[in-house]
Amino acid sequence: MNILLLPELDNNQSSINITERSQISHIQQVLELKVGDSLKVGSVNGRLGTAVIESVSDTKLKLGCLNLDIMPPSKLDLTVVLALPRPKVLRRLIMDMTAIGVAEIILVNSYRTDKSYWQSPMLNRIDEFVTEGLQQGVDTIAPNIQLKKRFKPFVEDELSLWAKDRSLVVAHPYSPLSFNQYIEQSGLPQVLCIGAEGGWIDYEVGLLQEHGCQPIHIGSRILRTEAAVNVLCGRYL
Q1: Could you tell me the pTM of the whole model?
Q2: DSSP secondary structure string, 193-211?
Q3: Helix or strand or coil: residue 217?
Q4: Would you say 91 and 125 are in contact if contact means Cβ atoms under 8 Å apart?
Q5: Phi, psi of 101 (to 5 degrees)
């Protein structure tokens, strides 16, 4: 972690006790900080700054001299519509997109999304993965994350409305138009639609295209979802 993410704080608060074991362990074992040392912190939905360790044990970390005077980085003007991936991949993708600064993440169903993924306990840990991403990316503002279990109604009722004032693309390796060409012609799109392992099926690409999405490819290589997400989102940094 590059900052220690604290709960939402009062502007006048000068100290706080932390009992989250993973954070305490990181401070002790990875950063090897001790009483009197300063570290970078951030308050959820608030500012970034520094704090000083006043006491630390295996169960409690007390921070004092809180000085939160730095605004968090601006979010990217980007919504990622992502077909729900395998549970093991979900954690890394949420962390990476949060660290990159994606403003909104929509997890949708797709033909190649196994039904069991929607029952995965990983979905109940999304807030945990967001926290890890914020601490990695030195940010305090979480992305807006929504789950949409019905692909067709989402595309027809919601995504189609976005096309009225936002630019949308769908990643599809067999599109004749490259992402570079799209950017040269229209600039960075505000919505990226990315499939899970195996990509979107033709029906899904057709429905997305019918409701305002321009298919684009990112080269001749077929990438895993993780690689595709980072390649596409990396263009916004």
Answers
A1: 0.92
A2: EE--TT---HHHHHHHHHT
A3: strand
A4: yes
A5: 105, 20
Exposed, middle or buried: residue 20 (CB in 10 Å: 0-12, 13-18, 19+)? middle
Q: At what angle do helices 87-100 and 225-234 cross, to 10 degrees?
A: 10
Question: Residue 59 burial by CB count (10 A; 0-12/13-18/19+): exposed, middle or buried?
Answer: exposed
The one-letter code for the residue type at 135 is Q
**Residue-wise DSSP of 116-135:** GGGG-GGGGGHHHHHHHHHH
Token pair 């006048």 is found at 12
The helix/strand/coil state of 103 is coil
pLDDT per residue as tens digits for the range 190-229: 999 999 888 899 999 999 999 999 999 998 888 889 999 9
Q: Two tokens at 38?
A: 């300063």
Which two structure tokens, joined as six digits, stand for 209?
């295209």
8 Å CB contact between 52 and 38: yes
Q: Which residue has 């704080």 as its token pair?
A: 9
Report yes or no: 38 and 50 within 8 Å, Cβ to Cβ: yes
